[in-house]
Design a protein that fits this description.
Layout (H helix, E strand, L loop, with lengths): L2 H12 L1 H11 L5 E6 L3 H11 L4 E7 L1 H12 L8 E6 L12 E3 L12 H12 L6 H38 L16 E4 L2 E4 L3 H7 L8 H11 L4 H4 L2 H19 L22 H4 L8 H8 L3
Parallel strand pairs: 1-2, 1-3, 3-4
Antiparallel strand pairs: 5-6
Amino acid sequence: MNSPDKLRESRESRNIGYQTFIRHIRENKEGLFCFFEGKDSPYYHLRIKQVFTGNYFPIKCGNKDKVLKVFKLIGYHRIYDKYKKAFFVDSDFDPPLNEPRIYTTPCYSIENHYTSASVFGEIIKSEWGFSEVDEDYKRCIELYESLQIQFHAAVQLFNVWYACLIDKKHQLGEITGVNLDDKLPKGFVEISLDGVTSDYDFAKIQTAFPNALQVTLEEVNQKSAQFDTRDKRLTFRGKYELKFMLMIMDGLILDSKKAKKDRQYISKPIKYSITHSQAINQFSQYAETPIELTQYIQRFN
């Protein structure tokens, strides 16, 4: 065995998604093998079952890079060409893959599909028992739309900076030096039912992330102008978009439990709880389904 073969074999043995696929094959499974990023499976599950008519086998790979590595590893073996395989990744701020065999979200990530005012409205109608003619419903929708505009203004600079960082990573072939959480950096943005405010600037970002690749203010301004022409709800980092929606829902639930005279938006107590870590699963049925996803799954029928 030559060195390239040994290297590939080593990568295959360490790749969980690839090894899971091999175990399925050894058990003579037949159907559609679906490879996902970490927590994305609940979103795709419902949509695959609605479109694909046969059995399907979800395989969690980890992050986006690991899904792409599985795709590459399987591609080395022509014997696997006969199996139906679907690969699902988020666009993030990365350059387009231009690979039709891999489904890439038309927005930043699947989380963005959960955060429109219409999805928010469907959730509170179904889960909170509202009707569209209820004043409580109308107040909640109006508030959500207003706060979302404020939120996008507050987080634009950070999103733009991070997008520039990803551009730089691909240009230089280096790591970003930044590992972001699901939440914005502490103290950068404050979210409440009273409004969304920001307390950071370009210099504060640089101080908070001293190990990040260097990005200039000129690059940030150029990218910001590009983002101004796009739908920010779909363009900005999805985890922040979803976190915003969940915080507004939490705030509204708390508001409803105040003394009646102190309630601002909801006239009766809402007995409902949200588990933030399970939100992708909890609200999967309400999230948007882009036509590109349906078309991609239909190909396997």
